[in-house]
Amino acid sequence: MTSTPLRLRTAGQQTSYLRAAERSEDCASGAGLPLDAPILTATGWRPNGDIAIGDALIDPRGGQSRVIRLHPGGIKEVYQVSLQDGSRASACADHKWEIQTRDSNNRKKLEIVSTMEMKARTDKKHWQVLLPKTSPFTYHTTGELPIHPYLMGILLAEGSLSDQSLTFGSGDTEIVDRISTLLPSELTIKSSGIKHRISAGNWGGAQTSRNTTGRNVIITSLRGLGLWGTRSHTKFIPEIYLRSEVKDRAELLRGLMDGDGSIKTDGNIRYATVSEQLAYGIRELIWSLEGRAKIVLRENRTYKYKGEARRAKNTYWINGICGITLNPFWLERKAKWFAYSAKSDSYSRKVRGVNPIGAQLVQGIEVCAASNLIATHDNVVSRHTQTGITISKLPAGQTMLF
Q1: Fewest CB atoms within 10 A around its CB: which of 52, 62, 128, 146?
Q2: Which residues have CB under 8 Å from 278's CB, separation 6+?
Q3: Domain covering 11-132+352-383 assigned CATH 3.40.50.740 in the classification
Q4: Ramachandran angles phi, psi of 120, nearest 5°
């Protein structure tokens, strides 16, 4: 969720926006999200201030969604909604949320409430407030994946992408055997213990001499994706894989988890990496498959090498992985311990607190979607805005496609 320039950064743009807000019938209520709040669209994250009429958004319930109106809210007091898994989102006092409550007598109730009404419920002793569960997202895919997603997951987890040849490490023959079936016919695997080289003939294929240029099509694809030459702390998930079809994202996750993921006999799933970008990419991948996860940074650690103290790289632990109903492992020795836990899933979506963070410009988004929901910061699920005036028009010739 990288930040991009907002439309309302200049003084003139902000003045025009505030005048539109003053003319809006719903400016008094000001239901909406901050302009810099990330909104999940069908092609990825975009700041609220950059959303336009006609944009296709992600429906957290898995359906189709498109923006039909934008509602200026003006400058409003904004509150931060914090969840049990560490995720958070911001909205103004009158913004709406779909929640499930459980009171002190264990009575459950589905409600649509404002931010302040949700705060009142979370502030009550022995009350539980849950935000909605998502479904696997359907993005607007951008083309065929150049490398099978399971193989990509293994390479990101266990691959060496900066040597003269392409190798990966694994002590599981099942993984090696499966990868051999996913390679183009001209490539083979040559193994030495737990180290395996994906080879084109006698060469690894990374050389650029006249006799070996382009022989390893996997390396060629890794170069095109910007991954060839990356090390353990600079690896990342390419955008085309994060926005691929559900089945491909599931295979990508299984490759990552079979490689560097772990699962205990009680079903507790974790993943560790020294790449910050890869860690946040994996978390977003889990979100897109209806799961939840939190990242814990472990830093300032040391280790000894030949009696000399050295500083270890920062490690990003992805903990609390839950909510996924599909098995995130393919490897049998790990997959057999997986079971969906409804208790862990609901606990991760529990609202921990609602607290003021200051006044900001806000904007409401109205969508045409069966669920009336949108996904914002940290994939927190929010209601859309249904009242007000239209401040943008659908581009000429564009129609609503579903």
Answers
A1: 52
A2: 156, 235, 236, 237, 316
A3: no
A4: -60, -35
Task: Taking each helix axis as running N to C, give the angle between helix 276-288 and helix 246-260, from 0 to 180 degrees, rounded to the nearest 10.
Answer: 130
DSSP codes of every residue in 323-380: ---S-S--SHHHHTT----HHHHHHHTBEEEEEEEEEEEEEEEEEE-SS-EEEEGGGE
**Which tens digit of pLDDT belongs to each residue from 12-59?**
555 554 455 444 444 434 589 999 999 999 999 999 999 999 999 999
Ranges of each domain in the chain: 11-132+352-383, 149-347
For residue 146, how many other CB atoms are within 10 A of its CB?
A: 16
Strand order in the sheet with 261-263: 261-263, 269-273, 315-322, 292-298
| Single-letter amino acid code for the residue at 185 | S
Other CB atoms within 10 A of residue 127 CB: 14
In this structure, the strands spanning 159-160 and 108-114 are unpaired
Check whether domain 149-347 has CATH 3.10.28.10, yes or no: yes
Q: What is the 3-state secondary structure (H, E, C) of 15-33?
A: HHHHHHHHHCCCCCCCCCE
Averaged confidence pLDDT in the chain: 86
The string of pLDDT tens digits covering residues 193-226 is 999 999 987 655 555 444 444 589 999 999 999 9
Q: pTM of the full predicted structure? A: 0.85
